[in-house]
Specification:
Layout: E1 2-3, E2 28-35, E3 38-39, E4 43-46, H1 57-61, E5 64-66, E6 69-73, E7 79-82, H2 84-97, H3 105-118, E8 129-139, E9 152-162, E10 169-173, H4 191-206, E11 211-215, E12 223-226, E13 229-235, E14 238-241, H5 252-263, E15 268-270, H6 275-283, E16 287-294, E17 298-307, E18 310-313, H7 323-335, E19 346-349
Parallel strand pairs: 1-4, 10-11, 10-17, 14-15
Antiparallel strand pairs: 2-3, 2-4, 2-9, 5-8, 6-7, 6-8, 7-19, 8-9, 11-12, 12-13, 13-14, 13-16, 16-17, 17-18
The structure holds 2-OXO-4-methylpentanoic acid.
2-OXO-4-methylpentanoic acid binds near residues 68, 229, 294, 295 and 296.
């Protein structure tokens, strides 16, 4: 791996108490090019723009996918990744579905750890703070014929992140638009899945809803995901979440929530969540919580669900009573090395790893 360090760090311009999500980038990035059917040597270099043609196939045909993951700093300034092997496996699952080459494990894992070690000073320390890491693969070939490209780039960029307390939001259960279809790319973290969600989300925003609960494309009767996240429902003291499928992303936070709920002896049902069942539970007073989970915000709690012309108001609960908050706190405590990690999820990034 070729490492070219920046001659001028920008870290003194970074205010770790006041910054927006995904707008400030660490000093370095990783890039690795693929051509002639093989990956070249990966390079870590100063972060900055790269020269590409508007005829690049990745932007014309959307042959692009990404990952989202985080690194955390504990009180001793030790740095940890969280279940990085899951993101490695998933980026290659997404790449395969989009007819792109798989990234070799050493490029992904070594590159990730070296980049995070090199810019460990950028990882903010403190409650809810982390480094959001964005690995991505996209087609770089300059050609207009609609076919599989033959040149690609794997890159990793990263940006400091913090979790704000976000008040519970109103969400709209979709009865028309879909995020994914049978036989499609819903399970892949395909860039185009996000592009396709922006317009329906804008329409929902105009109606006063912050997010959409995506339902199945055939009947719109079953929950699939929520916004850019997986969705959980609490009825009584039991949790329900849809099973992963070709239409649902296999979220790392989703899986961690399920494991932690089981660890807390909360019954978790991984089964189709029908809109009708949720409405019924609301009408009989047993619908307690509905929330989304994802890497970026960890949890987003909902205060109301819009469905057709109805608004279902969820009960107001103290933070201590919410399963969503309890499990999130346990998850963040594991991520930030404040609590034992019985699952073996933390992955320490040794200091000086980038010099090896
Ligand atoms: C996540 O919840 O981690 C996401 O996928 C959001 C990301 C697109 C910013």
């Amino acid at each position: 791996m070729i490492i070219t360090k920046t001659p001028a760090s920008r870290i003194s311009e970074f205010d770790s108490d006041n910054f927006a999500f995904g707008k400030t980038f660490i000093d370095h990035m990783l890039i690795c090019e693929y051509e002639n059917e093989s990956w070249k040597e990966a390079q870590i270099m100063p972060y900055g723009p790269l020269p590409f043609s508007p005829a690049m196939m990745g932007v014309n045909y959307g042959q692009a996918c990404f990952e989202g993951m985080k690194a955390y700093k504990d009180e001793n300034d030790d740095v940890f990744l969280f279940r990085p092997e899951k993101n490695f496996a998933r980026i290659n699952k997404s790449a395969t579905r989009l007819a792109m080459p798989e990234v070799p494990e050493e490029v992904f894992m070594e590159g990730l750890k070296k980049l995070v070690d090199l810019d460990r000073n950028w990882i903010p320390n403190g409650q809810g703070k982390s480094l959001y890491i964005r690995p991505l693969i996209f087609a770089t070939e300059e050609a207009l014929k609609a076919r599989i490209a033959d040149k690609f780039m794997f890159a990793i960029v990263a940006s400091p992140a913090q979790s704000y307390y976000t008040a519970p939001v109103s969400v709209l259960i979709s009865d028309h638009y879909s995020r994914a279809a049978s036989g499609g790319v819903g399970y892949a973290k395909a860039a185009g899945n996000y592009a396709a969600s922006f317009y329906p989300t804008k329409l929902a925003n105009e109606r006063g809803f912050e997010q959409i609960i995506w339902t199945d494309d055939a009947t719109h009767e079953v929950f699939e995901e929520s916004g850019t996240m997986n969705v959980f429902v609490r009825i009584g003291d039991e949790i329900f979440t849809p099973p992963t499928s070709e239409k649902i992303l296999d979220g790392v936070t989703r899986d961690s929530f399920i494991e932690l709920a089981k660890h807390n002896n909360i019954p978790v049902h991984i089964e189709p969540v029908r809109v009708e069942r949720v409405i019924e539970a609301h009408n009989e007073g047993s619908l307690k919580e509905v929330w989304g989970v994802g890497t970026a915000v960890v949890t987003s709690s909902f205060k109301s669900l819009g469905y057709k012309d109805e608004i279902l108001i969820l009960p107001e609960m103290n933070e201590e009573e919410k399963f969503a908050t309890m499990i999130k706190n346990q998850l963040v405590a594991i991520q930030t090395n404040k609590k034992d990690d019985p699952f073996g999820w933390r992955c320490k990034v040794e200091k000086g790893y980038s010099n090896i």
